[in-house]
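Would you be willing to look carefully at the protein I have copied below?

:::
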Amino acid sequence: MHYTGLRRWQESLNNGEFSCLDAVNHYIEKIEKDTHNAFVEIFYGEARERATVVDQKIRFGTAGRLAGMIIGIKDNICLKGHRVSAASKILDGFESLFTATVVERLIKEDAIIIGRLNMDEFAMGSTNKTSVYGPALNPHNKAMVPGGSSGGSAAAVAAGLCHAALGSDTGGSVRQPAAFCGIYGMKPSYGRLSRYGLIAFASSLDQIGPLTTNLEDMALLLEVMAGKDPMDSTSSSHAVEPFSEALGSERKYTIGYLTETLEHPALDPEIKQLTLDTLDHLRQAGHTVVEAHLPHLDYLTPVYYIIATAEASSNLARYDGVHFGYRSPNATNMDEVYTLSRTEGFGPEVKRRITLGTFVLSSGFYDAYYGKAQKARRLIVQTTNNIFEKCDFLLTPTTPGTAFPLSKVFDDPTKLYLEDIFTVMANITGIPAISIPMGQHSNGLPIGLQLMAPVFKDFQIIEMADQVSKLSTYNPDLVNK
């Protein structure tokens, strides 16, 4: 059962070549044999029950638009009756009481949710090494990280363990692992997809996003999941466009590139050359290519981490050992319940970010750090809006380099934070961004390029990504599955 896209897959289902139940059993067997540690739980019973129901709908001609699509969800997205832990000990044994809106919408269109996917603890990380379940591994080379925090989601799709996956993107956590694993990963405009049922990291930055092997699936998933949700006050009432109709367009646009990204000392020379070559090909295809400037590039990461950690320290205060999840067996009084449960339940990276966030919000430091970061955020938004007055899109590298070794140790944790330098701009400003697999590095690992557009230009970004992807030299068959 080789998956090349939902349209061909559904043709096979309709022709009786195999059933949804056959497919689910096939993928369950693949996941059970897999060695990438992408899945942390398989929904055996529910996936098979859903497959049986969808088979009946196909038989009677009443199946939804996603009939037969097998999807994995990141372990911070809720599904009623199933465990959700955000890859943290603090949520050990917790079972969700409700289903995330985006997952409900997928199920309504007859997608089959097959299991939970590995991630960095509470979505904090760029490697998937902070997970309580251990790291997921890159399907191209198991010695390399798959990226984070949606590393399990990217690894599962790249390794062919499911057709698509959901991740969450707070500072690049869908796009970076997509680039490292050679697939598509998109962060829609802030508010385009409901966050109801997503375990929060940083509420003003978080956005659920899909990871797929092709743009046709990506567009259809966005169509199904997008739209206003009364359960999420930050979800937008902006009209849902028919994203699938964006494919195949030959419309010409103005493409900008940020000189600061191409001149950044951390950028790999081969990734820089691929970016320049892609811009040249776009120019030859009739698009206008212009230079743009973001003088605040080096401030993006500090601004992001101040805001993100401040919001995380507030969001994670609810995990106290009292209401739900892990409670320390060593506690003998109420103070120890709080202190020991959080000390034992959270991993080092989460504790580091809670501590930093509490510090920047504390009396005497609020104005010096958090207040200034919010002012800088506003300046970055204004600068970004000014850039988009001169161009329709921005094309940049997704990451400074390719996937790095799992064994690599960062003596200074802030050096790892610089992995997000090209991706955090989209989260700070709320604009849509997508990573497109564009080529292969000489080291054999995939290279992703990132396309960004003005806020709520999600339709247009799919349209342009389709044109850019046609220039790709990436060969997905080289993945070592």
In short: The mean pLDDT is 96. The chain is about 40% helix and 15% strand. The first strand starts at residue 39 and ends at 42.
